[in-house]
Fold each of these.
Amino acid sequence: MAIHFQHLVVIGVGLIGGSLAMALRDRGIVERIVGVGRGLKNLERAKERGIIDSFSRDLKEGSQGADLVVVATPVCTIPAVIKQIAPILRAGTIIIDVGSVKQIILEQVEPSLPAGLHFVGGHPLAGAEKSGAEAASAQLFQGGKCVLTPSPNTDPQALEKVTSIWRESGMEVILMDAQRHDRIMGAISHLSHIVATCLVQTMKGLPDPAEELLSYASGGFNDTTRVASSRPEIWRDIYLWNREAVLEAISQFELSLRRLKGFIEEEDEAGLLKELEGAKKLRNQLKRF
Amino acid sequence: MAIHFQHLVVIGVGLIGGSLAMALRDRGIVERIVGVGRGLKNLERAKERGIIDSFSRDLKEGSQGADLVVVATPVCTIPAVIKQIAPILRAGTIIIDVGSVKQIILEQVEPSLPAGLHFVGGHPLAGAEKSGAEAASAQLFQGGKCVLTPSPNTDPQALEKVTSIWRESGMEVILMDAQRHDRIMGAISHLSHIVATCLVQTMKGLPDPAEELLSYASGGFNDTTRVASSRPEIWRDIYLWNREAVLEAISQFELSLRRLKGFIEEEDEAGLLKELEGAKKLRNQLKRF
C-alpha cells in the first residue's frame, strides 16, 4: 500500500520517535516533520541532525496540522498526551504510539477519542541501550518485529496504513490482541528486568559487603544484570501498567527457582543436569545472539 | 620474586590451562611445556599453536618430570586428578588448580597429599565465552583478578611462587580463605547462572508456548540469560560442590524477589521506584561493563 503523509508530528524525539521519523523520511513517506518535547537540547540536536524540520515545546501548538502523530513518550504518559492533543487534531488524523504495554493504553485512549481520529497502538521491539535523538537511526528497526494491537473499534484503513508505516521502516508487523501482547512481554521482557534488578539487590543482603562482592564480578553477573541499569521510572510504570502479566510471570519464575533449589538441596545430580540441559537447549534457540 | 620452572605440565589444555601456559612461556618463566588431556584434536591444536611442546593422553606418563603442574580440568575432577598423579611427582613439585570452587577441593586434596608436594589452590576470574586450546591467549589474564586460597598447611615459599606465577600472567592476586571465596562466588557468580537458567525455564511454564515467547526476545532477555548456554555438567558440579553458599544466595534472592513482587502487588510506586533506583545505582558501580 502506497502511503504518504504531509505533516508528521513526533511527540518525544528520542531513540524510537527519532528513528521512526528518520526511517519514514528516508522512504519518502512524509513531507514535513515537527518534533515536540520538553528538553530543548534534545530538540535542537534532532533539528541539527535533520530528523525534524522544526520543533515546539508546547504539546498543542506543536501538534497542529498533523495528519500523522507518533507518540513516543514514556509509557504512562501516552494516554494523557493523546487526550490533550485530540481536541486540536483534524478528522482523519492517525495517531500511533510505541509504548511497551498496550492494553491499559487502549482502555484509556479509545473511549475518549473524538470521532474521526484513528488510534493504532503498537510496540516496535527495538534495542534501547542508547537514548535520545543523538542515538536515533533510520536503520534501527531493520529486521525487527513490531506488534500492533488493534481493537474491534480500530479503523481498518488506518490499521492498513499503520501496518505500512512500520513495514516501510523495516519491521515485520504482527497483529495481536493487546492483552496477549502484554502477557508475552511480561514473560519475555519485563520478567528479565525484574530478575536482573533482584539479582543486584540480592548482593546487599548477604554477609559480605555488596561493593566487595561486585569487585569480583565477571561476565556472568555483568550480562545477567545489564538491564538493571535502565531507567527506573520507565520500569516502575511498566510493572504497574502490566501488573497482572508481570505477577504471573514472577510466580512462574518462583516455581522454576524452587524446583532448581530443590535439586541442589537434595543433591539430585540427574534432576539438576536435566534442568540445566533443558535451559541451555531452549536458550540456544535464540540464534541471533 | 624471580621464578623459573623447567618442566610445566598442563592437565586440561583448554582456555584457562592453555592461556596460562602461553602467558608463562611469554614471560620466560617455563622451559618445557607438556600438555595432558583426553581430546586428541585439542592437544594437537595446542601443539600446532606452540602452546605446548608435546602431549600425552595418559595422566601419569604425561605428568612425569614436572616441577610445576597446572590442573585445569572441570572442577569436580580436580581432586581425583591430583590424587592420581601425586605418587609419581618428585618432592618440591608445585601443583596449582584453577577450579571455581575451592573449599571442597582443599578438603579432598590436602589430607592425601604426599609430603614434599605443594598444593596452592586458585581461581583466576577470567572470561569463558569461548573454550578449548583454540581460544587460549597469553593476554587472557591481563588486568583480571586471581583468588588464591591457601590453608594453614600451605607452604609459604610455594605460596610465594604461585603468587608470582599469577602476577606474571597479568593478574592481581588476592589471598582469601577458601570458604570465603566460595561464599563470594556463590553470590556474585553462581547465583547469576541459576537465575539465568530459571528465567529460561520459566518460559516453559507459561500459557504461551516457549518457542513463541522466545521469538519476541530482545536485548533484555538475551543478556540476562546468556550464561544459561554454558556447559550443564560444569554448572551441576559447581552447584553441588558449593551447595551451602549457593543455597544461601538463592534464599537471599528469593527475599529480594518477594519484596519487589510485594511492591507490584500493592502498587507501591514509591517502594518500587526506590528498589529500582537502588539496583541501578549499585549496578552502575560496575564501571568496566
Amino acid sequence: MTRIPKINVGLFGLGTVGGSVFQILKDHEHFIAEKIGYPIQITKICELDPKKKQQYELASSILTNKISDILDDPEISIVVELIGDKPIAKEIMLKALSLGKHVVTANKAILAHHGLELYSEAFKHEVDIYFEAAVAGSIPILRTLREGFVSDKIISVQGIINGTSNYILTKMAKEKADFKVALADAQKNGYAEADPTSDIEGIDAACKLSILATMAYGVFIPYDKIYRQGISEITPFDIEMAQKFGFSLKLLAISRKTNQEIDVRVHPTMIPATHLLAHVYGVLNAVMIEGEYMGPSVMMGKGAGGKPTATAVASDIIEIARNISRQVRGIPPLGFKAENIQKAKIKPIEEIESEYYLRFTAVDKPGVFAKIAHVLGHHEISIASVHQEGREEGHEVPIMVLTHRAKEKNVICALKEIDKLPTVAQKTLLIRIERS
Amino acid sequence: MTRIPKINVGLFGLGTVGGSVFQILKDHEHFIAEKIGYPIQITKICELDPKKKQQYELASSILTNKISDILDDPEISIVVELIGDKPIAKEIMLKALSLGKHVVTANKAILAHHGLELYSEAFKHEVDIYFEAAVAGSIPILRTLREGFVSDKIISVQGIINGTSNYILTKMAKEKADFKVALADAQKNGYAEADPTSDIEGIDAACKLSILATMAYGVFIPYDKIYRQGISEITPFDIEMAQKFGFSLKLLAISRKTNQEIDVRVHPTMIPATHLLAHVYGVLNAVMIEGEYMGPSVMMGKGAGGKPTATAVASDIIEIARNISRQVRGIPPLGFKAENIQKAKIKPIEEIESEYYLRFTAVDKPGVFAKIAHVLGHHEISIASVHQEGREEGHEVPIMVLTHRAKEKNVICALKEIDKLPTVAQKTLLIRIERS
C-alpha cells in the first residue's frame, strides 16, 4: 500500500458551525489520527467577515478571501462548504466537484432545491458529496439510512426536525403561552431568528424532509413538491384539547411510501401520547424510521448548535479521508447507486387520507353545529367526537371535532363550504392526526 | 474495475434470526442488488436440527450438516454465525477468519468473553468481523459509534438493552404487579426464557455493555470486569417510591470514561422523569451516547425478534459485500485501528460515587431510624430525604432513604453495619440514581 499523506481540507465559512468544525478537528487531532491512522488538517479557510476571523487563533497564512485559493490548491482534496443558503455556495460546490474534490456540506436549502444537480456532478467526476450535518445536527440519521438500514425497505420517515418550532410548541404546552409569547421567548434565548418565517412556517423542516425522503427512497424529492403548514395559527387551547384527547401536538415532517407513490408533508400533527416521538421536548430533534423488517426505530439528539453540528461535518470528513486513504470511492451519498436517481412520484396532498382535528369558530346559537355536521356528512366525513368549550349564546365559540379517517380532498371541500356559512366567524383550523 | 461476481454467503444456524436473515436476503434480493450493484446470496446453510430446516422452502443442495461444507468452500467469502453461545461457534469464527473469510455474528456472549481473540484473528488475516446484531437488534448503534460518532470523544454510554427486564419493570410499574407475576407474564408472552437468569440478573445486558463500551473507547472491556445487579429484588413498592420521588426505574447498562478509567456496570437505576431514557417502555431497547461535542444522543428500536435482528445481520453482510466489490478492507470493527486494542483500565465499583435509594426493612419502634442515620453519618453519607410508609409499632416496615452523592465504598461499609443491627430485619436494598 502506498504511503498515506495527511489529508488537507479547505473550509468555506467560519460561522458558528465552521468555527466549531475548525475547533473539533484541532482539539481531536491526535485522537482522530490515532483512530484512522493519519492526520486531517484544515489548511485553508475562506471567510470574508473580518470579525469572524478574529474569534479563533488562526495563522494568517491559513486565511483567505479568495475562493480560488482553495479550489485551485491541488493539495486540498476535501472542500467543506458552510456558507449557508447563497447562490455562491452552490457554485463553489459544483466547481469543487468538477475539479475532482470531495465535498462536505450542511446546506439543506441548496440540497433540497438543487440536490439532483450536485449528486449528478459528483457521480460524473467520481467524487463524493456528504451532508450529514444538513439534517438534525448531531444525529447521524443520513448515514444510518445509507448504511445501518441498508438491508431494509423504508416504509415511513417521521421527524421533529425543527428545534425552534418544537421549543415554541413545548413552551405553549407547558406554560399555556400564546404563540407570540413563546416565539418572543425563543428569540430572546437565541433559538429563533429575528425573521422566524423559515422555522415556524415549516420551510426549514421541509428542506430537511426533502433530504431525508430522498435518502430513504433513493429518488430525488425536491423541496417544492412538499406540502407545508406552519404552526403560527396554533393556540394553547388547541394543545390543551390535544392533551384532552390523549395526543401530543408536534410540527411533524412525514414521508410515507405506498406502492410507488411517496407522500411528503410538514404540518402540525396530533400524535398519541404513546407515540415514540410524543416525549421529544424543547429544541431536541428526533427522527423515526419505520422499515418493513425492523419495525420503528428512533434517533434523537441535538439538532442545532455549532458543536453538535460540527461532529456531523467532521465525521463526514473522516469518512471521505478513510476512502481517500484506501483509494476507493465512498458509498454513494444516497445509498442507492447514483445513476439510478430519478425524480419521485409524489402523492398530492389532496390524495391522502387522515383523521382530523377541526376547530370551527361559530356563533353559539341553536342549530349551528347541525349545519356544520350536515356539510361534513355530505362530504363523507364521519365524526368521531365533538367538544364545545363553554357556552355563550350569540358569541363566537370554538367547536372541536375529531373525525374518523377521511379523504383530504373531501375535507378541503367541506371546509370551503363551512367557512362560507354566515354563522362561521373564522377560517377553520385543521390539524392532521397520525396514529403511528 | 474488474467485474464483480455475486457475493456468496454461508450461514450457520437456522433459528429465529438465521431464518429471518435467509428471508430478508431472499425477499429483498433485487432491491439490494439494485442498491449495491450486484446480488448477495446465501449458498449454503449448516443446521443440525431437521425441524428448523422444514420451516423454509430450501433446495436440499443448500443444506448441510457439515461445518466444512461452508468453511472449505472457496466460493464463500462471508460466513454468518448465528448458532448462539456454544464453544463451537467460536471455533467456527476463528477458523473462518484464519481462512480469509469475513465473519458476521450476533454472538454477544462470545464477543463479550473472547472478543479480543476474534478481533486479533481478523486483523491478522486482513478480514473483517462485524456484529451489529449482537447489541440492541435493529438499532445500528455499533455502526453509529464506529462511523457516525467517529469524530467525537465518547463520555458515556447508557442503555436499556435487555427487553425482557424492561418489559417486566414496565408491567410492575403500570399494574403494580409483583416481580414473579410480571416474569410469568413475560414468559407466557414469549419475552422471557424458561430459565430467565441471563435476562433478569443483567448477564445479557452486561454482555452487550461489554461490546458497546469496547466500541465506544476502543479498548477491550471483557464481560467479567462488569459489575452486575439484577432486578429480582425490586418490588412494585420501590417503583412507586421512585415515581413519588420523580424517577423512573430501569435496568440500565452504564459506562463512563473519566481520565483514563472506565466505569462499567449494569444495575437497576432510578433516572429522572426528564431523562431521555425515562419513557422507554416494554420490550423496546434504547441507547444514549454522550459525546464531548455532540451532547447526548439516543437511538431506540426493537432489541430482539427474528426480523428486526435480521436487518442488522443483513446490513453487515452488505457492508462487507461493498468492501469486497471495492477490493478494500472495511473500517476496523471497533472503529479504532485494530493493532491498538488493549485491555481497559476498569474502575472498580467500590471507587464510584453516586446518589442512592436505600430501602431498609426495620422493626418499627422509637430510635430505630436514629441508629441507621447514625451509621450513615459515620460513613459520610448524607441523607437527602427519608420516607416511611405506614406505621406498625413492633412490626417490620420499610424505610426509604435518598442520599446525596456518596462514595460507594462508604455505602457498602455502612450497609454491612446496618444490616447487622438487631432491629434491621432484612438485607437492605440499594438502587443507584443517575441524573443525566
Amino acid sequence: MLSPLSKIRSRLKRRRLDALLVTQPENRRYLSGFTAEDTSIAESSGVLLVPFRGAPFLLTDFRYQLQAETEAAGFEVQLYNRGLMALLKKLLPALGIKRLAFESHYTLHSTSEALEKTAKDVSVELVALRNLIEKIRERKNKEELRKIERSVALNEQVFQEVYADLYEGMTERDAAIRIETAMRLKGAEGPSFETIVAGGPNSALPHAVPTDRPLTKGEPIIIDMGLKLDGYCSDMTRTVALGTPSEKMIQLSRLVRKAQLAATEEIRAGKTGYEVDRTARRIIAEAGYGDRFGHGLGHGVGLAVHEGPSLSKRNRKKLRIGMVVTVEPGIYLPGWGGIRLENMVAVEKDGGRLLNQDTTFLDL
Amino acid sequence: MLSPLSKIRSRLKRRRLDALLVTQPENRRYLSGFTAEDTSIAESSGVLLVPFRGAPFLLTDFRYQLQAETEAAGFEVQLYNRGLMALLKKLLPALGIKRLAFESHYTLHSTSEALEKTAKDVSVELVALRNLIEKIRERKNKEELRKIERSVALNEQVFQEVYADLYEGMTERDAAIRIETAMRLKGAEGPSFETIVAGGPNSALPHAVPTDRPLTKGEPIIIDMGLKLDGYCSDMTRTVALGTPSEKMIQLSRLVRKAQLAATEEIRAGKTGYEVDRTARRIIAEAGYGDRFGHGLGHGVGLAVHEGPSLSKRNRKKLRIGMVVTVEPGIYLPGWGGIRLENMVAVEKDGGRLLNQDTTFLDL
C-alpha cells in the first residue's frame, strides 16, 4: 500500500494543487505523528503544510516546539511566533506554491477570510477541499488495526471491571466517572467521547447524558463507552440489568442481538453500508419496532471515534478491506427505556472480523 | 443592566440586521440556558436564530428535543430532522428575514458555503460577524459572578484535598487524574481545560502535558487546574514543592508573587489590560527575568475558560465593571523549571476583588 503522504501527493497532482494546508487534528496526527491536541478549533497547536514535492512542514508555536521536533519525523518544524498568516506569507512564495488547498470542513470562516487575504497578497490561488485525508484514513493498515485492537481490549477490561462493581442506588453519573477514571488509570489518553450510563427511561435516549438518577433493579442500563489509546479509539455499548431483567428486556435484547449478528455476518469488502444497515433494520422492523430504531447502524472508527464509512441508508458505497466500523442496532421505547448493543468489526476480503471479545449480552 | 437579548437586538438594529444565527456553544448557553455541549464543531447540538423582533428560536434535532424544551425558556424549539439548511429555507422567509448575520469565528468554511447557498435560494443577504455576543459576555452580572465564585471555591477545595495527598514518586499523570476525578465526584461538570501537573524541568513548559515522570522532592511542581460548575469556569495555578524547596525556588516564587500582587492592586475599571500586564512585567524584568515570562499576564474567564478581556500588551481597552480576569505571571527557566501563580479577580469600580481564598503560595 502507498504511504498516506504518497496518496495525498497523487491526489494533489490530479487536481493540479501545489500544496495542502492540514488543520484537522486527527489528519495532522495521522500524517505527522504529532500528538498534541487543539484546545479548540480557535486555539490550534499546529498546522501541516504538505507541498506536492519536497519535505512537508509542521508549523506551530514555541509552546509545542520540542514536542513537534520529537514526534514529527520527516517534517520540518517552523514556528509562527508572529502568527500563521505572517509565516505563510514568507513560506508560500519561497516554496513556489501557486495553488494552495485548505480543509474547508475544519477551517473557521474567519480563518478562511484571513487565508484569502494572505494568499491574495502573495498571488496564491486558494482552493477549498473536503475529506481528502479522511477518505484515506478510512482504510487502516496493519499497525493501525493493532492499535485499534488494543484500544478495544483495554475498553473491555474497563467495562468488565466497572460492570462487576455496579450496585443498586449508584448514580449514572458516579458510574460514568468510575469508568472514565479507570480508563485513565489503565493508561488510556482519555475517553473517546462522553461516557453514557443511562438507566430505565433514560436509556430510551440514544445520546443520554449521565444524571443523578440511581441505578435500579430489573431496568435496562445502557453503557456506551470508548477510550483513546495511542491515538486510536474504541466504542462499545452493552445493555445490562442489576438483578433479574424483565421478560420484555430479555426479548428485546435477543431481538437486537439477532439484528447485530445478522449485520455482522453481512459485512465484507464489496457490500455497501446501505446493505449492512438494511439487514439489521429488516429484522427489527419485522418484529414491529422499525420506527423505534431511529439512527444508523454504525460508523467508522479510527483516530476519530466517528468517521467514515457509515453503515446507513445514505451510504451506497462499497466497504473496503481495512475499514473498521461499529455495528450498533438499538430499540428505544419512550417511557420504558432502550436496548443497544455495539461491537466493532474490521472489514476483510471474505467477511467481517469481530474486534470485541466481551460477551456480556449473553448474560441475558 | 439590559438583558443580553436586548443588547443583541440593539446591536442588530444598529447594523440593520434582521437576525443572528448563533452557533458558538457558550454563546448558545448564555442566551438560551440550553446546556447541551457539541461533540465537535461539526456535530452541533443546536443553533439559535435570534430575530430582531419576536421570539427567538432554538433549532436542534430529535435527540435534544426534550432537553431543549426543558431548558431554553422563552425560546421556540424547532427540529431540523432534514438538516439545518432545509429548516432555514422555510423559516427565514416565514419570518421576513432579509439580512442574516452568522458567527464567522465559529462557523466552518464548509458550513458557510452551505449557508450562502441556502440564503441565496431564499434571497437573504448573509453577513459575517465576530465576537458580538463574546463582547457582551465579558461583563458578568451578579448571578454570573456568584456562579464563578462557587466554581473557584470548589476548585480550591479539590486542589487542597489533592495537594495534601501528593507524595514523592507519584506520577504527574496520576496526580492529574486524581484532580479531575475529584472535580467530578464533587459535582463539577468536568475540568474546564486539561489539568496541568508538571514537575522539575517539565514545569518550564507553560502548556505542559502531564507525563509519567514521578514527582520529586525539592523541585517546583506547577499545578494548573480549573473546573466547570453550572456552566462557569475556574482557573488557578499553584507552584508547590514536596519537602524543602530550593533557595532558588523560594526566591523566584517570591518574585512572581510580588508581580502578581502589584498587578492585582492595579486592577480597576478604567485601567487597560496593557497597563496591568506592564506592572507585573516590569517587576519581573527588573529582576532580570523579562525574557523568561513569555506569555500574557491574564485572560477573561466565564462560560469559557479563555475569553476576553486579555491582560497583555495587545489590549489597550479599558477594563469595565463585572469583568473577571486571571492574573498569572510566570518565570520559566529551560532545564530547571518554572514558577507560575494564578488567581482570578473581578473588576470593580475602585479596585479588583480577589476571588481566591487559597493561600498555598505562602507555604514558601
Amino acid sequence: MGGDRGPAEIVAGAVDAASERIAPVIFGPAGLDTRGLEHVVAPDVIEMDDKPADAVRAKPNSSMVAACRSVGEGRCDVVVSAGSTGAMLAAGFRVIGRLPGVMRPAIGVVLPALRGPAVLIDAGANADARPEHLLQFALMGSIFSEEVLGIVRAEVRLLSIGEEAEKGNQLTIEAHALLAGSDLPFRGNVESRDLLRDPGDVIVCDGFTGNIALKAIEGTIRTMFGSLTEEITRTSAGKLGGLLIRPGARRLRGRLDPDNHGGAYLLGLKGLVVIAHGNSSRRAIQNAILLGARGVEKDVVGRLGARLPERTPTGAVREP
Amino acid sequence: MGGDRGPAEIVAGAVDAASERIAPVIFGPAGLDTRGLEHVVAPDVIEMDDKPADAVRAKPNSSMVAACRSVGEGRCDVVVSAGSTGAMLAAGFRVIGRLPGVMRPAIGVVLPALRGPAVLIDAGANADARPEHLLQFALMGSIFSEEVLGIVRAEVRLLSIGEEAEKGNQLTIEAHALLAGSDLPFRGNVESRDLLRDPGDVIVCDGFTGNIALKAIEGTIRTMFGSLTEEITRTSAGKLGGLLIRPGARRLRGRLDPDNHGGAYLLGLKGLVVIAHGNSSRRAIQNAILLGARGVEKDVVGRLGARLPERTPTGAVREP
C-alpha cells in the first residue's frame, strides 16, 4: 500500500525486478492484482498522517508491519517500502528489532559524488540525535562502505557549516570531538556544497540535516534540468543544440537520478529494510528491490552484526 | 582584509561599484592601494580561526570592527564584508547593536526561485536557535519581503523534512505551533526540494539548516554545470550542441549564480550589514556593494525598526 502512486505501480516494479534470483512477495489489500507474484493479504493501511508508533501497534496487518514480520521471522530476506519513513522505522524497530549494541537505526543513502560513491548517514530516520548517535552512525556507515562498497578504511566526515572543528551547532561540535577521539579515520567537517564533489566516503549527520541536504540536492537537479530545457529551447539554435547534447545530458541525468538508486538501506536492524521514495515510479521500485537483493547477497546485516560489537567506539553509550 | 582572494579583489569590486550615488570607503591595512577610494587604515586582522567574540574585543582596529563602528556612528551607511561570518555577526552585535525587541539578528538570503524571489532566513547567523527565534526570523523576513521586495502579505513557510505539521525535529515542531498561532500568513512546512521551485515568500529555519540547504543548492548547481559540460563535450556532436545551447545555459547560470546576488543582509541590527561569500570575486563584491546600496535606498533598517515593535508576535519572549 505504500507509495504515492498506488499499489499497481509497486506491483509493476516488482514484476520488473523478478528474476531467477529474486522472488518478490506483495503485501497488500485483498483483491489486488499482483500479476502472478505471491500475495500476502494485508488489509490495514498506515496513512501518511498516522502517528508511526501508534499505527504500528494498532495495525499489525498493515502491509508494512506484515512485511517486516516476514523478515523478522525469516520468511523473507528484505522488506522494501515506499510508505511513510516514520512508520517503516517504527515497524522495523518494533517488529524486526535492533542489532545488539545499536542505539538508533539510521538511513544510509549512497550519493553519486564525482570522486565515487559516498554514504550519507543518517538521511532521515532520526530527526533529533545526540553526539553519541552520530558516532555510531559513522561506525555503521564505515562498515557499510567497507563491506558493501569495497572501500578500504573509509574516510569519515561530519556534515557541518564550516570546515573548522568549531564551526557548526552544538550537536556537530560535540560530535566532532567524539569522532576525533575515536579510532575511525575521521577527516573533519565537510560542507554541503561538496556533497556531490568530494565529500569523503562516509558523511555523518543527524537525520533532519541529512534529509534537508539530500532533498536540496535532488530538488536542485530536477529544477536545473527543467530550467535548462526551458532556457535553451527558446531559440531554434538552442533547440538543435538541445538535441545534440541529449545523449550527454541523459548520461548525467542517469548518474544523478534518484530513481536509479531506488532507495536507501535502514541500517542497524536485525533484518534488511530498504526505504524507497514516497513518489517512487515503477523503475524506482524495481531498483529499490534490486538494491535490497544486493544487500542480501552482500549480507549487509550479518556484516554489521559481526563488526559492530568489535568496533563499538569509545564514548558510545549503549541504551538499555 | 576579509575574503579569501585578498584585499586587491575587494578594492577592484569596490572600484567597479563606485558611482555618483555610491562612494565606497576601504577599511584595510596601511599601504593598500585603494585606487583612489577613501582609505581608513585598519591594521588588525581577524583570522578565520579566531574566536569571533574574542577577536572583536581584542582587535578594535580590524577592518571589520572599524567598518562596523563607522556605520554605528553614522559615518557610513552600510558595511560589506567577505570576512568570517561569525566575526561579522559578533562585530555587528557589539559595535552596531540590535534594533529594539530583536533577540537574534539573522541572515536573509534572496533565493532565485522559479515562482519569484524568496527570502531564506536564517542562512547562517544562528547555528543553534529556539522556536521563538524562528518566529522572529519569520517576522523580520516578512517585513523585508514586503518592504524591500514589494510582496504583499508575504507567505511564510517553515523549512522541514515533511509537509505535515508533525514532521521535523523538536525545533521545527515547536516553531510550527508558534507560527500557526501568530498573525503571520503561515502556510506550513516546505521541503528543501522545493526551495528553487515554489517555496513561498519567506522560508524560516535555524542558521545551521539554512546554511546546509543553501550550500547544497549552490554546490549542486556548480557540480551540475561542470558535469554537464564534461558529459556533452565527449562527442563532436555534443560539442557543437554545447555551443548552440551556450546562450540559454548562460541565462540560467546568470539567474542562479550567487555572484550575481553578491551577498546577504544581516537583519535585526541598528545599521545595515551585507555579508558576502568568503571566496567572493570582484564581481561578487561589486554586487554585494550594490545590494548594500539598495538596502540603504529602501531603508531596510528603518522599516524593520518601525514595524518590528508593532508586530512583535504572540509568544515571542524578548531577551533582556
